[in-house]
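Anyone else keep sequences and structure tokens together like this?

Example one:
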Amino acid sequence: LLNKGNVCYCTGDYHHALEYYREVINNNTTSLEAYFNIALAERKLGNFEKALEALFDATLRRTVFLACFGT
């Protein structure tokens, strides 16, 4: 799904890319790459607030992961 989202992103189909990235997160909430890619796609769509939220979520999840499992 992540790769399908990446293909959509690369072809400029940001809305469908977001759908794939969100589906990745629904299946695996620890996929930091999916959160980062959501931020990129939202930025391309001009949704800067949503892009920042996705980056914040990725940062928060990374921090929790590191606290639980170390570096």
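And example two:
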Amino acid sequence: SAVSRPRRCVSETGVPVATVGVGNAKNAGLLAVRILAASTPELCEAMVKYQSDLHDVAAGKGEKVRRHSRP
């Protein structure tokens, strides 16, 4: 996919763990915000808005590609 998602897994002790690839500072930051947003309503609202805006931008780009690729 165009947007990398953090990989989530569970440790041997049952504690959730998340990893992001080397060089993915933006994804690491977004993951940190998502973790903090679980207990901070303001961050949760900001993250939901960010994701919605990102979706709108991606949908617009996809529509542009589809429009220009039609015969």
